[in-house]
Amino acid sequence: MDFPTKEKLTSSSSSTRHWSYDIFLSFRGEDTDYGFTGHLYTALCDNGLITFIDNNLQRGEEISIELLKTIEMSMISIVVFSENYASSIWCLDELVKILECRNTGRIRKVYPIFYKVNPSEIRKHEGKFGMALDNHDKKFEDDMEKVTRWRETLTQVANLSGHEYKNGYVFN
User: At the top level of CATH, which class does the domain 18-118+160-171 belong to?
Assistant: First the structure.
């Protein structure tokens, strides 16, 4: 994968904005935590990138204010889409915040990685993504605006240029 190096990030930053993290990793832990995402995190850190991974945060039903601030203070976000990503309310709320920060200029770049999932499955809300969103429709009958926002955000991020990871190979 051709992610920026620490040197590229610091030399290409023409603004005076300062971030606490170079990279914010968004992922569904049970799908990729100790495999792909763990190796990605190590590789980014080994290349001098200050990378946030939320392994140690207290999980709850709602995303924490602390995590939202961390997203805002990250220069780049890498979103690792895996088959169960959309089943996590936490991941979906995180993704909404990431896209919001991208649209307002707080985050410079969002890199999606499609880990053993097809980007069109996410864009079209098919397969496990469609099933997860249908379940959210039922759970949030009183707040359909929330589910609509998740659907729109998934489509927008899946439309970004990203990398597909299948069976040990990365495709652009």
Answer: alpha beta
**Rounded Cα gap, residues 83 and 81, in angstroms:** 7
146 near 140, Cβ under 8 Å?
yes
- Residue of 7, 88, 76, 13 lying closest to 40 (CA atoms): 76
Packing angle, helices 127-139 and 144-158, rounded to 10: 160
pLDDT at 14: 47
Sequence-distant (≥ 6) Cβ neighbours of residue 114 within 8 angstroms? 81, 122, 158, 162, 163, 164, 165
Alpha carbons 120 and 130: distance in angstroms, whole number: 11
Quick check: is 30 catalytic? no
* 4-37: pLDDT as tens digits: 666 655 555 545 567 899 999 999 877 775 688 8
User: Which residue did the predictor score with more confidence, 23 or 61?
Assistant: 23
Instruction: Compute and round to an integer the Cα radius of gyration of the chain.
Output: 16
- For 147-168, write each residue's pLDDT tens digit: 999 999 999 999 999 998 876 6
Please identify which of the residues 62, 83, 94, 100 carries the catalytic annotation.
Answer: 94
**In the chain, where are the structural domains located?**
18-118+160-171
